[in-house]
Amino acid sequence: MAEPALEAQFRQLAEDASQDELSAALLVNRVLDPTVDADVLRHRIDELAGACPSGVPPWAFMQQRGFSGSWTEPVSLAHSCLADVLKTGHGIPISLGVLLLHVARGRGFDAVGVNFPGHFLTRVGDALIDPVDFRPVTENECLHGLNEARGLSEARGLGGTAVPDPFATATSAMIALRMLNNVKAQLVGGSQWDRALAIVGYQLILLPGNAELQFERAQLWERLGAPDAARQSYAQVAQQGGDAKLRSAAEAKLADLGDGGTVWN
Questions:
Q1: Alpha-carbon distance 167 to 148, whole Å?
Q2: CA–CA separation, 24 vs 201, rounded Å?
């Protein structure tokens, strides 16, 4: 279950817009490894930023230091932990992107995260950088890949979701949400329902009342054999406005659970 101390830190992150992206990523690291010393880890990342030579683009420096989003082993929780990313050089786009932002700002660059759908990006000065291989990309390249992914989803009957601004700046809270999504996917894939439930709890602090997250929480309560808690979460979704399909799905689940409750096998 969620830890009260971590819940309090997520509330602070949600309320304090001045917290940087590194603070968000370090908090996610603490969720995965409560023993990590965030101050020591931040100091090590400061040292990384200080090692970037003047005149060398920060993304080129990250390449030179061996950081990459391409590797042979399967994606794991370690790729969302900055402590592990620093040791191995391997991370997912968002963990690598957070490191790049910190290095770039340490060298005097304006740098922001880009909340691009399905693939975190960064802007460093005027350059749009893909943190997988730390190379500059164009918006057209990114949009072409996004349109291909949408076309594949529609071909599979999954539909497509319109994104108002795929190049919107990612706030620190958004970065925490995205990192937690990656963690949650790993935990669900490993049938770690209790840990995944805690992740949803942290996400709901950052995005209160979100119906999709409440629906996920209800599903996880079912997986854990707690039909009463599942009914309560499904009822919250059914009573909300918003997405009609999600409301209908919640109502159907409530009907299936009935008074006695039905547990997923």
A1: 17
A2: 16
Using CA atoms, how far residue 94 sits from 7, 17, 61, 112, 251, in Å, is: 22, 19, 17, 12, 35
Give residue-wise pLDDT tens across range 172-189: 999 999 999 999 999 999
Predicted structure pTM score = 0.90
Q: How far apart are alpha carbons 162 and 87 in whole angstroms?
A: 38
Half-sphere exposure for 219 (CA within 13 Å, toward CB): 15
Stretch 45-68: mean pLDDT: 97
Roughly what angle, to the nearest 10 degrees, separates helices 4-15 and 193-206?
30
Quick check: 38 and 5 in contact, CB under 8 A? no
List, as one string, the DSSP characters of 24-35: HHHHHHHHH-TT
To the nearest 10°, report the CA torsion of 45, 51, 57, 60: -80
- B/e letters for 189-211, b = 16+ CB within 10 Å, e = fewer, are eeeebebbbbbbbbbbbbeeebb
Q: List, for residues 123-175, the tens digit of each pLDDT value.
A: 999 999 999 999 999 999 999 878 765 543 344 343 445 557 999 999 999 99
What is the spatial distance between Cα 46 and Cα 22, in angstroms, rounded to a whole number?
Answer: 11
The DSSP secondary-structure symbol of 226 reads: -
Tokens 């908090």 -> residue? 27
**Residue 28 corresponds to which tokens in the numbers above?**
């996610």
Q: How far is CA 21 from the centre of its chain?
A: 12
Specify whether the CB–CB gap between 38 and 29 falls below 8 A: yes
C-alpha count within 13 angstroms, C-beta hemisphere, residue 207:
18
Query: Cα separation of 86 and 200, whole Å?
Result: 26
Q: What's the burial of 251, exposed, middle or buried (CB within 10 Å: 0-12/13-18/19+)? A: middle
